[in-house]
Write a structure and sequence with these properties.
By secondary structure, the chain is mainly alpha-helical. The chain has two domains: 2-137, no CATH class; 152-464, no CATH class. The chain has 18 helices and four strands. It has a two-stranded antiparallel ribbon. Strands 3-4 form a two-stranded antiparallel sheet.
Length: 483
Amino acid sequence: SRSAWWPGGRTGTQTVAAAPAAAAPAAAIAEAVAASAAEYVPRLTGLSSLSKMPGGCSHARRSRPARPGSWTRASAASTAASSSGTGSASAPATAAPAIAARSRSGRSGCPGGGSCPPHSSCVATRIGAVALMLRSYYPGRMGGQARRHLWKIVASIALAIVLFGVFLWTAPLAEVGKALTQVKVGWLLASLTVALLTYALRALRWGLILRPVGRVGTANLLGCTAAGFATSTVLPLRAGEVVRPLLLTARTGLPAAATLASILTERLLDGASVLLLFAFGVVSARDGLNPKNLGLLRDTAMVTTAGLAAAVVLVWFLLRRRDATVRRIASWAPERFRTRVASFFQHVLDGLEVLRRPRRLAEIALWSLGLWVAIGWQLVLLAHAFGFPMSFGEAFVVVAVSVIGLAVPAPAGVGGFHWAIRFGLTQLMSVGVPTATAFALVHHAICFFPITVLGLAYLGSVGLSLGRVRALGAETRPDAEAT
């Protein structure tokens, strides 16, 4: 027999059959993270490594009988339903009252029946959603799909090394070093301050996007935003784009599909803001830009605008015909999964719902413009640090080019971001290669190093270190069922 909660140790008196219900512990963990998460996230097994994590509750590290009315009862009911193949639509409904009751009493509802601190610091709660995500990035079993994913990771890192190596190889390093020594520290610190401000603006805007789904505290928004960018910096394949929303789900209980969809809303708003400011920059800074490349800038803006417009029209159509769209998508799934698929896409559209509310959309659009104006301001301040003038219009053009460089699938945009910044400065503004190279190096460091330190510190404060992130990804595997 096996514990109903943890594969690594007996923490309750209720047991389940080992083979038929292999996914039971993970289904219970998913419910502990958020009542609705069990409908659409992959189940995991092999989370015994959580028992080795310092801090938090101790239900994974010691044996004690389950108390009547504790989480074990709710989790057993839901896992029995999931293992019987009758669908898990009722599982969140079973677990939700238990979650709410424990939250009101100031206890986490520890699966081991112990006295845990609030749910935000309980090991099972704070780790669950992130662990559910990590397997897809760092699979433990080397099947065909895992091998392909591993090759993508290797290719991403190799691409970053090659691009950055060639970037340095093609620059006069002695002159680059001289340019770095002449940086004005005061302007540099001002640029760094504005860079940190932009991440705060991102977090607050994210909260506005999620308002139709639920209100989120500023501390959670700031922490999860920093953690997401830190993860994207230190891990390949933009893992932070998934860590950020799922970590917020783990901390707040918001539906994971809605938080994931909010990232798409962010990207649409970012794209519209960058294009608008790019067009303003091309018009206002025409005299300061290299005339040979104005045609290239115009063509790039037209193609990007067409793609963004198509995405906006598609999202608007999906929201306009929401119920019909969900029914049609669900009809493509096997019958046993249709309820879960429909619920998943309903939550996805919840995350995009802000696009249908003109007043709220206008408010968020202003936040987005303010965010990207601040990013342009950061470049203007950094240009002063290197001793050359840069107008806001020129800064917006360089920002737009740097966004293209960040599209390269490399950790922290290494290589692609550097090339894009240097191209924008040398080809569009006629800045010398040594100064442009030094500018790109410093700008990248300002954008990524401070937020990475803050994000890793936040992950550590909730019990996730980089080593634990990798370990969890290696030790988990999905259930046989796929939604």
